[in-house]
Amino acid sequence: MKELSKENLTAVIKTRLQNSHKGTFGRSVLIGGNDSYGGAIIMSAEACVKAGCGLTSVSTAEKNHTALHARLPEAMVLDWTLTQEFNDLIDTADVILIGPGLGLDTHSQHILDNVLQQQKSSQWLVIDGSAITLFAQNHYSLNYPKQVVFTPHQMEWERLSGLKIIDQTVENNQLWQMKLGATIVLKSHRTEIYTANAKYKNPLGSPAMATGGMGDTLAGMIASFLAQFKEKEAAVCAAVYLHSFIGEELGKENYVVLPTEISKNLPYYMKRFEQLHNKTEEKR
Amino acid sequence: MKELSKENLTAVIKTRLQNSHKGTFGRSVLIGGNDSYGGAIIMSAEACVKAGCGLTSVSTAEKNHTALHARLPEAMVLDWTLTQEFNDLIDTADVILIGPGLGLDTHSQHILDNVLQQQKSSQWLVIDGSAITLFAQNHYSLNYPKQVVFTPHQMEWERLSGLKIIDQTVENNQLWQMKLGATIVLKSHRTEIYTANAKYKNPLGSPAMATGGMGDTLAGMIASFLAQFKEKEAAVCAAVYLHSFIGEELGKENYVVLPTEISKNLPYYMKRFEQLHNKTEEKR
Amino acid sequence: MKELSKENLTAVIKTRLQNSHKGTFGRSVLIGGNDSYGGAIIMSAEACVKAGCGLTSVSTAEKNHTALHARLPEAMVLDWTLTQEFNDLIDTADVILIGPGLGLDTHSQHILDNVLQQQKSSQWLVIDGSAITLFAQNHYSLNYPKQVVFTPHQMEWERLSGLKIIDQTVENNQLWQMKLGATIVLKSHRTEIYTANAKYKNPLGSPAMATGGMGDTLAGMIASFLAQFKEKEAAVCAAVYLHSFIGEELGKENYVVLPTEISKNLPYYMKRFEQLHNKTEEKR
Amino acid sequence: MKELSKENLTAVIKTRLQNSHKGTFGRSVLIGGNDSYGGAIIMSAEACVKAGCGLTSVSTAEKNHTALHARLPEAMVLDWTLTQEFNDLIDTADVILIGPGLGLDTHSQHILDNVLQQQKSSQWLVIDGSAITLFAQNHYSLNYPKQVVFTPHQMEWERLSGLKIIDQTVENNQLWQMKLGATIVLKSHRTEIYTANAKYKNPLGSPAMATGGMGDTLAGMIASFLAQFKEKEAAVCAAVYLHSFIGEELGKENYVVLPTEISKNLPYYMKRFEQLHNKTEEKR
């Protein structure tokens, strides 16, 4: 397995071209947040906006709209009933993230069905949280080439692959990556990434980050990086590494690192790696 | 074209007279924010208040009132149904901003009609975002002298003027400025301003600012400066330059600059330019 | 007229006794905030809590409860319909503030009637903003000794006293103070205070503070100081001076000072004056 | 009585194991916040999350959900009607906190009944605020071994034990601790803790902390520490001491310390004590 390092960040986070506009950095649509788990999709949205996605829209239960706007007016909102407007919104996306706080009821199921059917070949789809469980329960398959990233923790990976935690070896995981035909971000205190081409291991991650919402934040970052950067495999690796890197940095001064603190610090740390990239280039 | 510079700020942002009260710095009424785009008008309001407008009122869909108050209790709110209260509010304004998150439906159209009919010769009107698109769709004309500022990005300017982006040359833009009889703030990574008297080019602007909501923030700043400063053309130029100046400054430490961060830093940077103005005066 | 100075602060803001509890620092009930002006009562509440009042309750239109809690969970809320609960709440207060964002309609009038009738001789009542206008319109009189503070700006003082702004001389104001039998905080860029015993002039105040909500913040501070400090006249003077003092300090680095920034800085500046008081005592 | 000291913190707040996940640090369910006192349960939740509990859920009146999410998306919410979902949530908890802002009406009573009946022997239950008053009014008894912590102030302790404040001597308090069979955190400016094994006195506490919401914050910290740390008596002692320690530290620069400021500083101060622990270990 390749070990992720700072080079995974400097390879991706480059100086933006002067002649850019918000469209240059992609459109993400984030779907999740039922009546109890609205905070999850809010945390994903904060990560997505602050990691640099050009335009972020959130489709969530109406109950969550005010809290989202109160924290993050930069995001647009849409109720998550399956209207024409919902379908139109999905259609505009470069990246769709589904799952944070989505829940497991029938409505959530319908939304996932709908998104899986609608996904266009140009779009990336990140499937997180309860959407992974729903995907597993319904024995979906991605039976044609799709640009999909799953972000399971070990229990969700068991549901998706059938592999018990003890059987989640690198070889077995890689086998299931091939069967699914998707990128797998297998979250643990040392997250692993499985793609069609390679396997990566994240050497970072602090126990200060072991608190609810960290996964929602990571999912938002992955969506944002996919929307914004061209090399998609590299973008996923960079998001995973940066999430842990910031967590470790903040964990030096804090016993607990809140997910929203990771997001708050994204613009600063991304700049540091842009500058590091430029310094490295200069030396060459 | 004249290139904007720090002198455009020091010429406008002067030390306030001791004997001032909130009325001295004008009343702005901001109209926008439908059920999906409430964040837009919230961002405009934050910019307007923090740039120093004396009194800021927001007319928006009721859904957005709580989020606005949670972020900015300094602003007053009114539902945007076309009641007598709405008309009374419009009547008190020194500056009206319409458009951020307004949307394109029939209700939005009615509000724009209403505002265009009601505008008094003493009032300034800033037309932004979807209000520009509605204005273009309805083939409105400003067939008598009106104090209007349009703030289109290049696509909106195409809709308004009919000029395709490739044809948006300085000469053509100036021609259309005359036809419309309004001030044009043509937004791009190097924003241009066209007035009856002059043409300006903004040399600043960072790609870190290429994120949703930047335009809403600029529109709020323009409204605030028009409400507060006497020389209106100079006020528009100062708002445009300051917006980019802060964006560039924050962009030195941040890969992405959120629109709300620009607003948060307005009081500090405006003070710096007031002080710079005073130092320049002393030397004379 | 006596000129307010730092001594008005060191005389009031003393080191709290170790054996204190929240009841030691008084209960304030703040009433205001209709459907359009909810921000006003939120700003008063922030000032009241952060200036040290032990317990702060807010009675406001239900529409404003969520925004208040989102900013300030330290305050309790109650709908402002005239229920038994409302009367019970009023009954517990050491200080009642009525007026910020109250509005001028019939319901607002009923609430003011109710409060004026219910006020007990042990309670202080601060009448601010639209409650002053309502008081004037209804030709109320305080025909028995009441502990009342009015906080009019010059236009409201004209309504209350009948004195046109040009006639608002020290002598005339003092005369009307006696007729009303209340403390008058006459707000302008150099606020004056009239009591039965004395006249004070505030030498401070920055034009950076000339923005909507400053008066709501001052009213909240006055309520908090009355609830917390024993010498009531001294408490009012201290609140007025501190409000401007903080405004001037923040105005050195900011072109505009938001009302909520004044409140945010209250705990820090109050500590500074407590420390100054103790140093002065040591020297004696 | 043993006097609490920094050693009570270094004994508890140790370096987290690398191989941790959010489940490692426990699940808390917080119940409270009626239509008027929503702020109380919000403050408890902030303390619980920021003190390091792995997963925090809040069951409160629906009215409070948006404000909670706007401040703290890390928490999950559930309406507090007595549904199957409510019972399922309770069932998952390691620690249940009931009381902050709960109120005293029939519904609040039903919830308390329900929680007392449902509590499993593996779960800890913290009874605070109005839940203490309800417990006293209903002459409940804990007639079998339960893991309960009561957090009364002196008036609530009078209601619970029948001991008038003047009779709340160490001996009498200890006697009542035994009768109740629960841990008692008796709050005052020098809080005392009574357990089956020992008596503790807190030497810290600043009058700057004498403001509404401090108790709600302490209750949230106690729940968080019980969820997260193994030694339960030590966890309660650590929470009490840390709450006052942070209050005293912030009180050096602030005349008033808001409860939410205590919570905001938890991650930083907990890290300091982790580091202090490690230094002490090294010396051995």
How would you concisely characterize the structure shown here?
Chains A, B, C, D: (6S)-NADPHX binds at residues 40, 101, 153, 216. Chains A, B, C, D: Residues 5-273 form the YjeF C-terminal domain. The structure is a homotetramer of 284-residue chains. Chain A is α/β, with parallel strands linked by helices and 284 residues long.
Structure description:
4 copies of one chain form a homotetramer. The first copy, chain A, has a single domain, classed as Ribokinase (UDP-N-acetylmuramoyl-L-alanine:D-glutamate ligase), CATH 3.40.1190.20. The longest helix of chain A is centred in the C-terminal third of the chain and has 20 residues. In chain A, a hairpin with a 5-residue loop joins strand 8 and strand 9. The first copy, chain A, contains 12 helices and 10 strands. Chain A is of the alpha/beta class and 284 residues long. In chain A, 47% of the residues lie in helices and 13% in strands. In chain A, strands 1-10-9-8-7-6-5-2-3-4 form a 10-stranded mixed β-sheet, sandwiched between helices. Chains in contact: A-B, A-C, A-D, B-C, B-D, C-D.
